[in-house]
Specification:
Chain C: One of its GO terms (molecular function) is branched-chain amino acid transmembrane transporter activity. The structure holds 3 protein chains of 3 kinds. Helices cover 41% and strands 19% of the residues of chain A. Chain A has a 6-stranded mixed beta sheet with strand order 1-3-2-4-5-6, with helices on both faces. A 4-stranded parallel beta sheet of chain A has the order 8-7-9-10, with helices on both faces. Chain A has a 3-stranded antiparallel beta sheet with strand order 11-15-16. In chain A, α2 runs parallel beside α12 and α3 runs parallel beside α4. Chain B is an all-alpha fold. Helices cover 74% and strands 3% of the residues of chain B. The structure holds adenosine-5'-triphosphate (ATP) and magnesium ion.
Chain lengths: 416, 289, 231
């Protein structure tokens, strides 16, 4: 524990970075419109645990890149001189996330909290945002609750959610011929949610789901679960496992030789960092939903090159989304001339955005779900890989309106 | 029928990891009286060592099966000399706390160095694919793990029952004081025995590398099951550790097949039942309990 | 040969031995009698170096052995048979016999000699040690130290709970051992047995030596002693 805390403290102190515009005494920005006379962006995420590589410290870097880009773009014109980026580690625990969020809003003077992976932690922070009337843009968590039953005025959901994962992978794989499914899912809130979303998507696309096999979490041995799923001779085994559990399952799926029997593996939630850690061989041919891919087009690639220079690694969707959220927030601040949360919410609602992360993006006013084009990706075979992190082939693009939960299904009411 | 056979082999293969690691845990507990909480972390280090050495110097799986346990042996020797030995005179709780702290430290150091996403590992081509026996089809690697660990267990059993070293280990496991009073310098065996136990955990880690996620946390839930295994088998009992290891693997597999969400709870239910009926464990002696 | 001076032993706050002084000369058989809880077992454990919390000095052949560990004392010729016999369940009868290293080859019994003297051990050599009967286990425990060639035997109530024929057998062994010149310190509650084998006797009471008697006086005051010991 102590090293973990030490590391976290180090990261936090190292990244309390004060960036000042060169020009002293900026022109009539009207300092009175800014709390503490500055804008503070806080990244609250997993700095040491399972989501460290996916987002973690490099998302702080991404936010710093957004600040630098903003200052370069507006220079003397910027409405605020001092922009601070702070970071904190929530260790994926809702109680820690809750206290850290309070600390960030109250003591560090954070105007906005970004990222917050792990659904339970994200919901805890959303509650704080609502109470403190400060902004929260979630990127790392997948629960649809943020923009559904538990939505609130100050919370936005920027990148992906379980509905969209199922809509992408479940629909596309079923339409591609994988009609009969078996679903293996970890038996906790996220897994159950994913199981339901996938079942709905598969059935709507004309497929059927046989067994829903719940597994303990965490778990390192899936051999029997796989045997059981395969015994029904399905077209597809859908797994909702994540992180280390997903790696365990995929390794054991490969050893079991199920692919040769024509049983495909569809993965509910998978990140480029998973492929990177295990190598493309292990995941070859696996289809999954991707919110953004660094090598998809020239714009993405140019940004990914800059990111590589900053961090020594290629960005995941979460890094790009953190950059995008921070940049769009600063743009709103610039447009409104204030960091007042209610004013920024007004600026955001209904706004259409195209940036490096958001393609055909819209911030829905009704539920604060940010919809944008997403992708069905397929893991390349080793001989297709031409450089480091070149792991994905984009099979299809799912337009923003089709990928996310339609408003008529949403239970969100902002008043509540 | 076919499936039941398949579950059986899968259970025994999963049990192989438990048996090997629990064997090391039992030997260490027997001779040192130390409940080594860092055993799961050593299993993790074994897998990491295999992956990292493959990446750095191209060490293949077969060599890793030899090289990594040897490295882990020396790691264990170092731990025992530098840390564990300083606390053996005190209440066993101190060493439990020491190894508990050590496991957190090792896991965090690995995270710091290698992150959390896990390491890639390629197993030899020959261990890929499936073996078919009539209607039964089994992954080659699982069969290999099972056979290999049975051989290792057999080897350790022969070492324990057929050699003077084994006799001394058994004697000091059972009655440490008397063994000293009979003229045997038990302390001289303590360090190598600790190293040997750690080497077995490392070996289990190497075997896990091709088949399981190599992450810093891979030992964290493993060690919990391992404790259940040694309690079921009887603390310090060598045969007990092996039998209980395979038994727990089987219980887990059939639990997964017929009561998926309960598959880990079943293990602890089994542990509770064993403690109620035979407090010293299946192969434990009352005086050790 | 064996000399104990001012030996004190503690169990936490409780003191079990309050300055014990005694001497066992070479070739002597000396018994230690005393009520339950007098500290006899504690004294033998202290002599073997098994008790941590001790003060005082123990010398063997004039050399201080106070600081030595149990195995070093065994190697210098102390052979201990503990009160519960200390037979290993996880070792076969033969392994029980061959576990301790031979420390003094000239006085040591060979395995053949042991089997000759105790045929039952030969018959059961492959069986786990604790499957033997109580009497057989006592034979095994004795045979085990005899095989090492120990020069001073520390026997803790070898006759306890055994049938008269077996007690007789143990007496024979002690006499045979004595004839070979081995020194014996024998803890014994059985006064008759004690007087039949020993040269001298120490009466231990509440952690110190209450009396040092030669065998003649011991035999004379036998009834008094029996009453004292509560038998
Ligand atoms: N482990 C222990 N912890 C605390 N006190 C102890 C311990 N062992 C012995 N004692 C105490 O030390 C004293 C001496 O005990 P010891 O066993 O040496 O007596 P003994 O003369 O051998 O008795 P017995 O004839 O019953 O064998 C007793 O008062 C006993 O209660
Ligand atoms: Mg006694």
């Amino acid at each position: 524990m102590s090293t973990k805390r030490l590391a976290a403290t180090a990261v936090v102190s190292a990244s309390v970075l004060v960036l000042s515009a060169c020009g002293s005494g900026g022109p009539g920005g009207g300092g009175g419109d800014f709390s503490d006379g500055k804008v503070v962006l806080a990244v609250l995420n997993d700095q040491s645990g399972v989501y460290k590589d996916l987002s973690g410290p490099n998302s702080v870097k991404a936010v710093e890149m957004a600040v630098a880009d903003f200052q370069e773009k507006y220079g003397e014109e910027a409405v605020v001189d001092e922009i601070e980026v702070v970071a904190a580690d929530h260790q994926n625990k809702p109680d820690i996330a809750n206290t850290k969020a309070q600390e960030l809003y109250d003591r560090e003077g954070a105007d906005i909290i970004l990222d917050v992976p792990t659904s339970s932690a994200a919901l805890a922070v959303a509650t704080q945002a609502k109470e403190k009337k400060k902004l929260f843009i979630d990127i790392g968590a997948g629960t649809t609750e943020l923009t559904n039953g538990q939505c609130n005025k100050y919370t936005f959901h920027w990148a992906y959610d379980t509905y969209q994962l199922a809509q992408t992978t479940g629909t596309a794989v079923t339409e591609g011929g994988g009609k009969e499914w078996q679903i293996i899912y970890p038996d906790y809130a996220f897994g159950q949610d994913m199981d339901k979303s996938f079942t709905r998507a598969v059935e709507e696309a004309g497929g059927t789901v046989g067994d829903h096999i719940a597994t303990p979490f965490p778990n390192d041995n899936f051999t029997t679960f796989l045997t059981k799923a395969a015994s029904a001779e399905p077209d597809v085994i859908g797994t909702m496992q994540a992180g280390g559990d997903l790696i365990n399952l995929v390794k054991q799926y490969n050893e079991g030789g199920y692919a040769a029997d024509g049983i495909e593996l569809a993965v509910g939630l998978m990140f480029i960092t998973d492929i990177h850690s295990l190598g493309v061989e292990a995941f070859e041919g696996v289809q999954f939903a991707e919110a953004w891919y660094w090598n998809h087009d020239d714009e993405n690639r140019a940004w990914a090159d800059r990111f590589l220079e900053e961090t020594g690694t290629r960005p995941s969707f979460a890094h790009a989304a953190n950059y995008s959220a921070a940049l769009q927030y600063l743009e709103a601040v610039q447009a409104e001339g204030t960091d007042d949360a209610d004013t920024i919410v007004g600026n955001f609602e209904g706004k259409e955005i195209n940036d490096v992360f958001l393609k055909n993006g819209t911030i829905r006013a009704e539920d604060h779900r940010v919809i944008h084009d997403v992708y069905l990706a397929k893991v390349k075979s080793p001989d297709q890989v031409t450089e480091d992190w070149d792991y994905e082939e984009i099979v299809s693009t799912i337009p923003a309106e089709e990928a996310f939960m339609p408003l008529d299904q949403s239970a969100c009411s902002m008043g509540g | 029928m076919n499936e039941i056979l398949q579950y059986t082999v899968q259970g025994l293969a999963a049990g192989s990891f438990y048996a090997l690691a629990a064997l090391g845990l039992a030997i260490i507990f027997g001779v040192l009286g130390v409940v080594n909480f860092a055993h799961g972390a050593c299993y993790m280090l074994g897998a990491f060592a295999a992956a990292v050495l493959m990446d750095l110097v191209g060490l293949n799986f077969w060599l890793a099966l030899i090289v990594v346990p040897v490295l882990m042996f020396f790691f264990g020797v170092l731990l025992e000399r530098l840390l564990v030995s300083r606390l053996t005179a005190l209440d066993p709780l101190y060493n439990f706390l020491l190894t508990f702290g050590l496991s957190l430290l090792l896991v965090d150091l690995v995270k710091r160095e290698y992150g959390v996403s896990g390491q890639p590992y390629t197993r030899p081509e020959i261990l890929g694919g499936q073996l078919t026996l009539g209607a039964l089809r089994l992954p080659t690697y699982q069969v290999f793990v099972l056979v290999f660990s049975l051989l290792v267990c057999l080897g350790v059993w022969l070492l324990m029952t057929r050699t003077r070293i084994g006799m001394i280990v058994r004697a000091s496991t059972e009655k440490s004081e008397l063994t000293r009073a009979l003229g045997i310098d038990v302390n001289r065996w303590v360090t190598p025995v600790f190293g040997f136990g750690i080497a077995l955990a490392g070996l289990a880690g190497v075997l896990a590398a091709p088949f399981r996620a190599i992450t810093a946390d891979m030992g964290s839930s493993f060690i919990i099951i391992l404790f259940a295994v040694v309690v079921i088998g009887g603390l310090g009992s060598i045969v007990g550790a092996v039998v209980a290891g395979f038994l727990v693997g089987l219980v887990e597999a059939f639990g997964q097949a017929y009561a998926p969400t309960l598959s880990q709870i079943v293990i602890f239910v089994l542990m509770a039942v064993v403690i109620l009926i035979r407090p010293a464990g299946l192969f434990g002696r009352e005086e050790n309990a | 040969m064996l000399e104990v001076r001012g030996l004190e032993a503690f169990y936490g706050d409780a003191q079990a031995l309050h300055g014990v002084d005694l001497v066992v000369r070479e070739g002597e058989v000396v018994t230690l009698v005393g009520r339950n809880g007098a500290g006899k077992t504690t004294l033998l454990r202290c002599l073997m170096g098994l008790h941590r919390d001790v003060r005082g000095s123990v010398t063997l052949d004039g050399t201080e052995i106070t600081g030595l560990g149990p195995h070093q004392r065994a190697r210098r010729g102390l052979g201990w048979v503990q009160d519960d016999r200390g037979i290993y369940a996880s070792l076969s009868v033969e392994e029980n016999l061959t576990l301790p290293p031979v420390t003094h080859p000239d006085g040591a019994w060979s395995l053949a000699q042991v089997y000759d003297a105790f045929p039952v051990l030969a018959d059961r050599r492959r069986a786990p040690g604790t499957t033997l009967s109580g009497g057989e286990q006592q034979m095994l425990a004795l045979a085990r130290v005899l095989r090492t060639g120990a020069r001073v035997l520390l026997l803790d109530e070898p006759s306890e709970g055994l049938a008269p024929v077996i007690v007789q057998r143990i007496r024979d062994i002690v006499q045979q051992v004595k004839a070979n010149g081995t020194t014996v310190l024998l803890v014994e509650q059985n006064v008759r047995f004690a007087s039949s084998v020993a040269d001298r006797h120490y009466v231990l009471a509440e952690g110190h030596v209450a009396a040092d008697l030669d065998n003649e006086e011991f035999t004379r005051r036998q009834d008094e002693l029996l009453a004292y010991l509560g038998m």
